[in-house]
Amino acid sequence: MAGHKQSNRPFYRIVAAYNKRARDSKYIEQLGSYDPLPNIYNEKLVSINSDRIKYWMGCGAHSTKPVAKLLGLAGFFPLHPMTVTETERHRALAELAEEAAPEDGVKQQQL
Amino acid sequence: MIPTSYVFGHESVIDEVATNMAAFSAARCLFRSYSLVKNVDQNTGILIRCSRRMLCSAPSDSSSPDAHVKPQFMDSEVQDILTRITGLNLEKVFRPIKQELKPPKYKLMTDAQLEEATQSAREQAQRLLKMPPVLPERKPINDVLSEDKILEGMDTAKYVFTDITFNIPHRERFIVIREPTGTLRKASWEERDRILQVYFPKEGRRLTAPPVFKEENLKMVFGQDRHEDMLDLCQVQFEPDSSEYIRVHAATYEDLEKMGKYDLLRSTRHFGGLVWYLVNARRVDGLMIDMLQKDLLQDAVSLVGLFNKVHPHSETAQEASSQQAYGLDLLKIYAKRESQRAGYVELALQAYEQTSAESTV
C-alpha cells in the first residue's frame, strides 16, 4: 500500500510495486485504493481492481500483510488469521475498559 | 451509445438471455453505461426480441385460455403510436437551452440546401425525442455472502469493497459491504448508485439527491410550470428503475393531469411516458378532450387505439374489434363506454365535427 499523505488525512493506494522499493515511491500499476477515515455514512471505501490483481498474482506477486487483510475482509481471499487475532485482542481490551469504567464510576461516587 | 438494460434488472432474465450466446453478447453490450439515448434502431430489434423472451419465461396467465401478451412500453407498435402522438414541433425541440452565449451564425443557402438543412434538423429532433425507458421498480437486494461471528466488534465502521475492473457493466459489478457485526453482504441499490457515482462519476449526477425531489419542493416547481426541467433532472440523477425515479415521474404526471397542462410536455421526449402512465391508469379523458380542442383528430384516434391494445378486455376494445371501427367512430365508442367524463368528451366531439363541417363548407 502506498500512502500519499497530507498531514492528518491518510489515504492509501493498493499498488503493484517492486519489493525493495520505498513505500511511497514509483510503482508499476495502481490496483485500488483504501480510505481509512469513515465518511458521513460511516463507511470506509476500498476499491479493488480484481482483474489486474489476479493478473499480478498470476505473474508471481505476493500480497503484503495489510493488503492481504483487506482482501480477506472483502471475501476475495480467505480470511487472514491475524484479523481474527486482532479482533479477539480488540474485544479483550474493550472488555477491560468496560470493567475499568464502572469501577471508576463507583469510586467517584464513593469519593 | 446504446440504450442500457431496458428490462434486464432481473437476474432470471439475465439467465434466460445467457442461454443464447449470440443474443448474450449483444445484450452484454446493451448493459453499457446508461447515457442520454442517441442510438440506432438496429438495437431495438434485439431488445424487442429479448423483451418478448422475458414475457415467455414469465408464468403465463392460467386464467385466460387465449393467453394475451400484455403490450410492453418497448413494443414497436406502442412506440410508433407514442412517437406519433408526441408530435414534432421543431420550434419547441430546438428552443434555446441554457448554454454559453455564442453569436448566431448566418449561412447563405439555396432553397434546396434549406430543405436539406430542415430535413437533417428533423432527424436530429427525432433523435433528441427518443423516449427514456419505463421499467418496473427494481427489487431490493438482500444477499448475504457470509456471516463471520468471529469478526464481530472489530471496527466501528463498515468496509465497502468495490470492484473497479473497467470492462464490467455497472449492473454486474461487485459491491460488497463488511458490517461491524462481521456479515458480508451485497450493497443495496441506493448504496450501489452512490458508490458507482464516486468511482465512475456521471455528468450532472450528485452523490445525494438534491432537495428539489422532496414533496413540498416538487409542488413549488410544478407551480412554476417547470415539469420538463424536473423530469430532465430526475432522468440524470436516478436510475430508471429506482423507486425515486418512479415516484417523481408519477407525481409529475399526476400534477399535469390534474391541471390539464399536457402542452408543456407535448413535443418533448417525456410525452410518451406521460401517455403510457395515463393509459395504464385508464384516465385518458383529460388528454382526449385536450386533443379534440386542439383539432388533433389523428392523435386522439391513435390514443384510443393504444388504449384498446393495452386493455384488450375492456368494453371499448371488444366493441371496436367487433365493429371494426375507425376514426371518429372509435372515439364515439370510447366516449360511450369507457370515459368517466362522457359528457365533456361528447361535447368536444360535436364541436370538432361542427368546425370540420364549417371548414369544408
From TrEMBL, chain A:
InterPro entries per record: Ribosomal_bS16, Ribosomal_bS16_dom_sf
Keyword Ribonucleoprotein: yes
Alphabetized UniProt keyword annotations: Mitochondrion, Ribonucleoprotein, Ribosomal protein
Lineage, opening ranks: Eukaryota, Metazoa, Chordata, Craniata, Vertebrata
Main location: mitochondrion
Native organism: Oncorhynchus kisutch (Coho salmon)
Subcellular location: Mitochondrion
UniProt keyword annotation of DNA damage present: no
PANTHER family attached to this UniProt entry: 30S RIBOSOMAL PROTEIN S16, SMALL RIBOSOMAL SUBUNIT PROTEIN BS16M
Pfam families: Ribosomal_S16
Official protein name in the record: Small ribosomal subunit protein bS16m
NCBIfam families: S16 (TIGR00002)
Homology family: Belongs to the bacterial ribosomal protein bS16 family.
GO molecular function ontology, one term from the record: structural constituent of ribosome
GO biological process: mitochondrial translation
Cellular component terms (Gene Ontology): mitochondrial inner membrane; mitochondrial small ribosomal subunit
Family matches, as Gene3D superfamilies: 3.30.1320.10
Automatic annotation (TrEMBL), chain B:
Family annotation (InterPro entries): Ribosomal_mS22 (IPR019374)
GO MF: structural constituent of ribosome
GO cellular component term, pick one: mitochondrial small ribosomal subunit
Xref: Pfam families: MRP-S22
The protein, known as: Mitochondrial ribosomal protein S22
Source organism of the structure: Oncorhynchus kisutch
